[in-house]
Structures are given as C-alpha cells and as structure tokens.
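Support request from a user on the community tier.

User writes: "When I paste my structure tokens into the form, the page sometimes reloads and wipes my input. The last time it worked, I copied everything first. Here is what I submitted, just in case something in the input itself triggers the reload:"
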C-alpha cells in the first residue's frame, strides 16, 4: 500500500499543478506514486519517448516512489468501461490511502475527462462486481487539483519550502517549456509562463497565510482531530 496516488492526464501535469505538494509529502516520509494517463503523443513539441525520459527525470527530482504511464490515447481519454477498467486496476494494484486527480472542469478535454474518469474510478474500484485482475479496493479520499477560479478550494498546501524544487522538476520538461531550436510556439513556452506559475502559487499561499500554496478541492469535507491537528506543543 502507498500513501498517495497522483494522477495526471499528461507528463508534466503533476509537476505544474502539485509538484510542491508531492515534494513536501515525500520529504515527510510519505510514499507517493505519479501516474500519467497518456504519453502526450499529440503535443505540439517533443515525442512520447522524450517526454517519458523527462517524466522520469522530474520524478527523481520530486522523489516519487514510482512513475507509471497507463498508455491511454492523448486527446482520446474517455469515461467508458474500457478506460475505467484500466484506471480501476491501477488503483487496486497500488492501494493508495489518497488519490489526487485533475478537477473535472477544464479548458483541456483530456484534463476534464480525466477528472470525470478518476471520480468514477475512485468509487467503482471498491465494487466487487466491477471485475478486473485485482480485488476490490477503495481509497480513503480523493482530492482534486488544478481547480478553476470559480471553485473555492477545500484546503491549500503550504509549499513555501518546496517551490524551488517544483520549478526544478518542471524545468526537466525542456521539450515543452523551451522555445529554443525548432520548437513550435505554444502557451506554455511563451514568455511570461514561469511568472504565471509563480503568481498562481503566490496567490493561493497568500490566501492561506503562506508564501506559496497549491489548492485542492474535496467533495467530502476533511475531518480533523482538533484545531491543532492532534499535536500539542510542550509547555514553555
């Protein structure tokens, strides 16, 4: 069993959205696996082989216990029984305590469908009569990242000490974020892109009283033992 299974639609999605959160949890001793649903083969820059190499290098920076790719078709992620079975089987094999998934409202159809697919897989993985090779298993909770502006986050993770590591992991995807050579111009290799990453994490950090933060949404309100998260400091 692992602690967190973090699912992204494409290689680099996890680093961009929750790289700081992953690094923070790894540093605290939690076992985190990153799972890319597709190989990103329809992207304007890079190749599946190059992006797989970049994903492995980024995983090493963040300290992921494992990096997997489920091989679903890029620009073809669907909420059907075939794709559902692939994702459910991965959950049942990994047996994570928590699942991280893209929010189901996005400008990118793969991100949107990945959110719906993971939302359904989280529930279905616990059903005995939805059969895959592995036995039924349901994670404790699912949290969604890359939430749109009109959705209030359930919580914000303080990544102030891990923001630079997040940037270091993103930089491994040179094929996607560099305009050098014959790179095709895109929104994510445009001038100012790095500033947008920083400004977003600064905004959410400020909302929660930290320097940098990453927001998450949960359909189920988190339960805490008390207002001090079960930790009592010794009297001075």
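"...and here is what came back when it finally went through:"
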């Amino acid at each position: 069993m692992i602690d967190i299974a973090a699912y992204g639609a494409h290689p680099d999605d996890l680093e961009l959205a929750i790289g700081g959160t992953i690094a923070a949890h790894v540093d605290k001793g939690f076992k985190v696996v990153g799972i890319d649903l597709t190989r990103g083969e329809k992207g304007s820059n890079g190749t599946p082989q190059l992006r797989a190499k970049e994903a492995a290098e980024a995983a090493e920076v963040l300290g992921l216990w494992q990096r997997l790719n489920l091989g679903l078709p890029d620009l073809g992620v669907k909420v059907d029984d075939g794709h559902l079975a692939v994702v459910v089987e991965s959950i049942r094999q990994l047996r994570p305590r928590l699942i991280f998934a893209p929010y189901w409202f996005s400008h990118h159809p793969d991100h949107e469908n990945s959110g719906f697919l993971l939302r359904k897989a989280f529930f279905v993985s616990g059903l005995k009569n939805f059969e895959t090779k592995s036995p039924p298993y349901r994670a404790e909770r699912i949290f969604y990242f890359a939430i749109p502006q009109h959705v209030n986050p359930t919580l914000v993770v303080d990544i102030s000490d891990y923001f630079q590591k997040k940037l270091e992991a993103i930089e491994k995807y040179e094929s996607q974020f560099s305009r050098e050579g014959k790179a095709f111009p895109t929104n994510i290799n445009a001038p100012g892109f790095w500033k947008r990453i920083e400004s977003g994490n600064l905004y959410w950090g400020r909302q929660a009283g930290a320097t940098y933060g990453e927001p998450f949404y949960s359909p189920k309100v988190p339960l805490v033992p008390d207002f001090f998260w079960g930790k009592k400091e010794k009297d001075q």
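Agent notes: The reload is a front-end session timeout and is unrelated to the input. The mean pLDDT is 93. DSSP finds seven helices and seven strands in the chain. Escalated to web team.
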